[in-house]
Amino acid sequence: MKDKATIILDIDNQKQEYNYDILDSTRGPKAVDLRTFYSDTGLFTYDVGFTATAACSSRVTYIDGKKGELRYRGYEIEKLVSKHSYLEVCFLLLNEKLPTKEQLMHFDIELRHRSFLHEGLKNIFGAFPDNAHPMATLSAGVTSLASFYFDHLDIKDDIEYKEMAYRLIAKIPTVAAFAYRHSIGTPLIEPDINLSFTENFLFMMRAYPHNNLKVTADGQEQINPIEIKALDTIFSLHADHEQNASTTVVRSVASTGAHPYVAVSSGINALWGRAHGGANESVIAQLNMIGSVENVEKYIKKAKDPNDEFRLMGFGHRVYKNFDPRARVLKKLQDELKQTLKLDSHLMEIANKIEAIALSDEYFIKRNLYPNIDFYTGIILTALRIPKQMFTAIFVIGRTVGWITQYIEFKKDNQSKIARPRQVYKGK
Ligand code: CMC
């Protein structure tokens, strides 16, 4: 027997019963299928912020917020990132299986060849003011890609989906690095086709023109393999996160039939916000503002005060009501890197004190507020010499594959519809 839900409406002393199917899931909650609820009853369901609404069915990413579990295509995140590179994770998300050695090599080569930007596109960087935030330039740059590759709005087949996916995954790091270089007034560094995905990004961020040795002005030579591994892990941890705000935006824009690059750049804009991907930049700003271990108690008090808007950045999550598993991986990574990279010990002390107090404080325990991924990325990224205005762009680079995978899933789902929520009207 299939599970059913019965809803009894009691309106004007008249009781009416409605039956709905319960949709199966392979993991996590099933869902009451309310698609005909409005036409059946003339009523809307009210769910601000979609806290109890499944807007699609998906096979990409699964989160168990109570257990603190995250899986990409069924693989547990901790195991996946300990054994596989970011490009393998990208391949897994796009193809539902990990690549063979040969498939990985081809995928890698395809991306390297697409990492260059059209000469015309490079001109747009000069149009932005000095000091423009790289996220604004990045979003504009990705939207502009649609004008350089405007074949048609509707992708016809898997070859075209693949081309779109490869182009975006390969070019977005270049747009991000160029956006940064422009913001500090240094020459743009072209991708180096001989370098791996992650090393190439660090190269475009750090190198000086015509300097094949990749030696930076402050005498730091080469790009340390530990740095590449750390950033690669950060990209993998950001690769997808089911129906979060920016992915919901990508799917909504996709639902209108807009160009896929524009859908992704809309995701970039949504990610920028402090409550979402922008939190990583805010965490470091907040740690600097707190300034010393002695001040931590004062700011914890502010975070708990219902009349104060201050929030502890990098804490809390809509879905995780336990430790964010991505934060667990990063905390371990941070400890490992302590030996080899110059991690800011002063900021780490402040962060450790915040974490210790918050994890034992009634306010945070009662509300299930745990450190999230953004609490740890900043300190590691700073040690990788990534400036804080680029933190959210790093999130973008990692998340691009997730947005694309979800975009393709949406487009191929014959139950997809234009996103069009309703409202409870309270006006005149
Ligand atoms: N500091 C202090 N109190 C908090 C915090 C925080 N960071 N987060 C939530 N609360 C309190 C909030 O005031 C509320 O208390 P009360 O019940 O007394 O009104 C309660 O916890 C529930 O908060 P909410 O805002 O209703 O929860 P939400 O699920 O709508 O919001 C969130 C989730 C991530 C937006 C929120 O926790 C937050 O603003 N955190 C700080 C920003 C942050 O770190 N964002 C990164 C999220 S992880 C990266 C990503 O995937 O985007």
The biggest beta sheet, please? 3 strands, antiparallel
Q: Give a count of the beta strands, DSSP E runs of length 2 or more.
A: 6
Query: Helix and strand succession?
Result: EEEHEEEHHHHHHHHHHHHHHHHH
Give me the oligomer status: single chain
Integer count of domains: 3
User: Radius of gyration, rounded?
Assistant: 23 Å
Spatial strand order of the main sheet: 1-2-3
**Sheet/helix structural class:** mainly alpha
Span from first to last CA?
Answer: 48 Å
The parts where pLDDT drops under 50 for at least 5 residues are: none
Shape: globular
Bound molecules: carboxymethyl coenzyme *A
CATH superfamily of the largest domain: Citrate Synthase, domain 1
Q: Please, how many helices?
A: 18
The CATH class name of the largest domain reads Mainly Alpha
CATH architecture of the largest domain: Orthogonal Bundle
Mean pLDDT: 94
What does this structure look like?
The strands form two sheets. The chain has a three-stranded antiparallel β-sheet with strand order 1-2-3. It has a three-stranded antiparallel β-sheet with strand order 4-5-6. With 428 residues, it is mainly alpha-helical. The chain has 18 helices and six strands. A hairpin with a 7-residue loop joins strand 2 and strand 3. The chain has three domains: 66 residues, Rubrerythrin, domain 2 (Single Sheet); 201 residues, Orthogonal Bundle (Citrate Synthase, domain 1), CATH 1.10.580.10; 105 residues, Orthogonal Bundle (Cytochrome p450-Terp, domain 2), CATH 1.10.230. It starts with a strand and ends in a 16-residue tail after the last helix. The structure holds carboxymethyl coenzyme *A. The site of carboxymethyl coenzyme *A has 20 residues, from helix 17.
